[in-house]
Amino acid sequence: MQADIFDVTLQDFQTVIAQGSVNKPVLVVFWSSRCNICQTQLPILEQLQREHANGFTLARVNCDEEHQIVQHFEIKSVPTAYMFINGKGVDGFAGEQSIDVINDFIKKHLPDPSLTLLGDAQTLFAQGKVLEAKETILQAQQINPNDNEIKLALAQIYLALGEFENAKPILLAIPMADQNMIYHSLMSELELAEQSSQTPEISALETALLTAQDKQPLQYQLSIQYHQVKRYKEALQLLFTILSGDLGYENGEAKKTMLDILATIDDATLVSEYRRKLYSLLY
Q1: Which of 267, 209, 212 is nearest to 238 (CA)?
Q2: Which of the residues 1, 53, 88, 116 has an alpha carbon 20 to 30 A from that of 186?
Q3: Could you read off the pLDDT of 66-122 as tens digits, one per residue?
Q4: Residues 95 and 127 in one domain
Q5: Model-level pTM?
Q6: What residue numbers bound the domain in which 87 lies?
Q7: Count of structural domains, the chain
Q8: Tell me, what CATH number does 208's domain have?
Q9: What DSSP assignment string belongs to 113-180?
């Protein structure tokens, strides 16, 4: 990725800074070749620009050459830096600063990357690209695991994919203060999904399993029923229980069923967990 680092002149000042800062923040640094501090601070700014993955533009103004820009901003000393957002200078600093101080200054003005990913995920979801939306929102959650708006978006995606078991704990953990209209809509959707996934066949098998002496046949039938209504985690739990007692149950059909489920569901965490469990039995 090419870094957005420019040596700005009077001719391109409007394009790079005034217009460019509408799309993303622009850090303008005024420097001089006669300034020793500038020689050490410019590489730091360039390094931070790359580390923030082009999250802001770095615009360098050479005060030895761009006298009109210097006069316009009434620059009295170098290095001096201003952060431009939406065409306006919103903050700045002057003189020698440590890399940590500069980095904190930059981060204060950059958009939260998790919220940017949240917006991207919501756009993908609206476009019907649900799997891509899931991948994006999981990245947002890694950055900001406590954001309840991100959690609600993730629960919505899980429900759309039929991964009700993953959506439920997220929704149950949302504090009352954040239980907005979206939350109540998702809870209603979850309740309907749970009702439709609790078929009479499943209820009968669950009841019979409570008192059965020979549980394995019922567990196997129940795992298949769970799979049919996309209750994948419960299906895999039952199959693993069966295989833990008899790896060759039903002439290998239970193992084949488990492998088939692992090959077809789109839940990387769940698949990884039960592949490890199955391999622990095989090897």
Answers
A1: 209
A2: 116
A3: 999 999 999 999 999 999 999 999 999 999 999 999 999 999 999 888 888 999 999
A4: no
A5: 0.55
A6: 5-109
A7: 3
A8: 1.25.40.10
A9: HHHHHHHHHHHHHHTT-HHHHHHHHHHHHHH-TT-HHHHHHHHHHHHHTT-HHHHHHHHHTS-GGG--
